[in-house]
């Protein structure tokens, strides 16, 4: 089943494409979609459509930062049905929590996780996709939209400590500096935004508990999008936990607010097994990390949940028919 996103992203794309002399309708047809996707913001469409459109537009416009240009024009209202709920959250921390709760109304692909240490907080963003890599354009669009949310809560003049991208720096950084400022780091270990920890709990001057409750009740009474399965929730949790050396059924269950036994029962009702889901996520992460030469095999082993490289190598060989070093050699160009 394809990962779905809200078609508002394609509507936003159509607005930016014209400024780059790119025909949005031709691009939409190129990925097998139809015109309704760029005029109706509340459809739910396959995530690869957006990624393919952005990649093709980047090539057609000689490397333009299409994703960032879309993010630069992003407004809180572009979050769609949950905009009112986000606007009236008491703090940024609460707003980030609501993004996860109502992600089925936005994008099933985006995973947001907050880490806190001393005086800083890291808002990590991960795109869950079947592609070997998420791609520069979708990642930059997602980080830019996240910045919009933060500024709506913290003030238009607020700036993060730094912005991080795991991909390399493009030739032209003009739009990056205009949108994020000068503290943009490429080739990082993660995609995300670093901010002062106290910003997570700074009171939102626009927050209104009554309007927030009204918005939440409306969303709960008029659900849109498809119901998120337990298996999908498990995949998201494993994506987040494995690189942290976790990922047991007890740890995933705790993340999802249920016992291991309850989690097993719900997966069984969906015809799924926990071990198969972990293996599925592990395969995707292993191939993604190994395709990036910056990660030594020993680090990849830890990032996908193995304490020993030898154990990782045996598992990888059983899955891909060759050891990780040979697989990596075959993907180098």
Automatic annotation (TrEMBL):
<dbReference type="InterPro" id="IPR018060">
    <property type="entry name" value="HTH_AraC"/>
</dbReference>
<dbReference type="Pfam" id="PF12833">
    <property type="entry name" value="HTH_18"/>
</dbReference>
<feature type="domain" description="HTH araC/xylS-type">
    <location>
        <begin position="232"/>
        <end position="330"/>
    </location>
</feature>
<dbReference type="InterPro" id="IPR009057">
    <property type="entry name" value="Homeodomain-like_sf"/>
</dbReference>
<dbReference type="InterPro" id="IPR020449">
    <property type="entry name" value="Tscrpt_reg_AraC-type_HTH"/>
</dbReference>
<dbReference type="Pfam" id="PF12625">
    <property type="entry name" value="Arabinose_bd"/>
</dbReference>
<keyword id="KW-0805">Transcription regulation</keyword>
<keyword id="KW-0804">Transcription</keyword>
<protein>
    <submittedName>
        <fullName>HTH-type transcriptional regulator VirS</fullName>
    </submittedName>
</protein>
<dbReference type="InterPro" id="IPR032687">
    <property type="entry name" value="AraC-type_N"/>
</dbReference>
<keyword id="KW-0238">DNA-binding</keyword>
């Amino acid at each position: 089943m394809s990962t779905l996103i809200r078609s508002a992203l394609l509507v936003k794309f159509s607005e930016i494409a014209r400024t780059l002399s790119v025909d949005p309708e031709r691009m939409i047809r190129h990925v097998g979609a139809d015109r309704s996707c760029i005029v109706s913001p509340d459809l739910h469409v396959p995530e690869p459509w957006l990624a393919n459109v952005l990649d093709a537009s980047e090539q057609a416009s000689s490397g333009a930062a299409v994703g960032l240009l879309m993010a630069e024009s992003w407004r809180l209202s572009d979050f769609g049905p949950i905009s009112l709920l986000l606007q009236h959250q008491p703090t940024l921390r609460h707003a980030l929590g609501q993004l996860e709760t109502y992600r089925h109304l936005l994008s099933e692909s985006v995973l947001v996780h907050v880490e806190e240490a001393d005086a800083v907080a890291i808002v990590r963003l991960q795109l869950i996709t079947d592609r070997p890599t998420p791609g520069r354009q979708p990642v930059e669009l997602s980080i830019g939209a996240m910045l919009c949310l933060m500024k709506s809560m913290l003030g238009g003049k607020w700036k993060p400590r730094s912005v991080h991208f795991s991909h390399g720096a493009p030739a032209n950084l003009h739009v990056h500096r205009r949108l994020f400022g000068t503290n943009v780091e490429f080739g990082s270990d993660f995609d995300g935004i670093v901010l002062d920890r106290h910003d997570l709990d700074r009171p939102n001057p626009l927050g209104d508990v009554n309007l927030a409750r009204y918005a939440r009740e409306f969303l709960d009474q008029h659900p849109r999008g498809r119901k998120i399965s337990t298996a999908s929730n498990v995949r998201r949790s494993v994506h987040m936990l494995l690189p942290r050396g976790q990922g047991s059924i007890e740890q995933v269950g705790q993340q999802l607010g249920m016992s291991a036994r309850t989690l097993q029962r719900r997966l069984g009702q969906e015809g799924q097994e926990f071990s198969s889901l972990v293996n599925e996520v592990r395969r995707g992460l292993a191939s993604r990390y190994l395709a990036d030469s910056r990660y030594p095999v020993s680090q990849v082993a830890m990032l996908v949940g193995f304490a020993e490289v030898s154990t990782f190598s045996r598992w990888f060989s059983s899955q891909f028919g060759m050891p990780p070093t040979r697989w990596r050699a075959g993907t180098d160009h």
